[in-house]
Amino acid sequence: MSPLSQPLITLLSSLTARSETAPCLRAAGVVITDGAWGTQLQARGLPPGTCPDTWNLSHPDLVEQVPRAYVEAGSRIVLTNTFRANRLALADHGVTDSVEAINRAGVEISRRATGGRALVVETMADLDEARIAVVAAKATGLPVVACMVFDSGADQDRTMMGTTPEDAARALEAAGADVIGANCGQGIEGYVGICRRLVNATDRPVWIKANAGVPTLVDGEAVYATSPAQFASASRAVVDAGARFIGGCCGTTPEFIRALAREIGS
Ligand SMILES: [Zn+2]
Fold this sequence. Notes:
The chain is an alpha/beta fold. It has helices at residues 38-43, 55-58, 60-73, 87-91, 99-113, 127-138, 165-175, 191-201, 228-240, 254-264, and strands spanning 13-17, 31-32, 77-79, 116-124, 144-148, 179-187, 206-211, 216-218, 221-223, 245-248.
């Protein structure tokens, strides 16, 4: 489902926005976000099995290349390399005493490439967990984006726990999310209908970050079938369905963002 770049449940990944576009959470038009991170770090030498978040302390220069590559490609919002930077996930790697340092470094790295700040709660399967995270994130006073993974059910329009887009949108809006969305789990074509349903269920702007299709395992490696050009051309239907923020999740790269920026502008 999310084999390489992100864990199934990401608790609080911060996102940063370029300072001159920090009000972009309210801006008119479509805003392009970033693509996958884990694969980008692996391409820069992150060894398999190493916790990517620890690289914020050990290899900050290499980590910083990722948001810079996305900004260069046209991203106006980039995440931080803090996908696993919570006490539970870091315990598996024996680095729980560095939770705060890893998060602080991750935010500083992405802010050097960009500017302003907001928080994103993404790749969530459980609505209760998402609501708890949104309430905690709102307490910071920063804008909050909340995204669920819709990849289950006969029509792939429910979360793993069975939540529909309508139920998710209403609950996340009630919890205080400023932007509501969906990420990961399936390719971009599957997110057209989900986007439309989210848009119809909430007044909040909608955020969509699909995978580059569904991966197949080739020699133990996840290979994604969708090309940057296919992803960009399919993104038009998601924008027409009302998405205000669009980017990529697993399997996407700066090439995907460049193609997206050419297709829909930013
Ligand atoms: Zn993903």
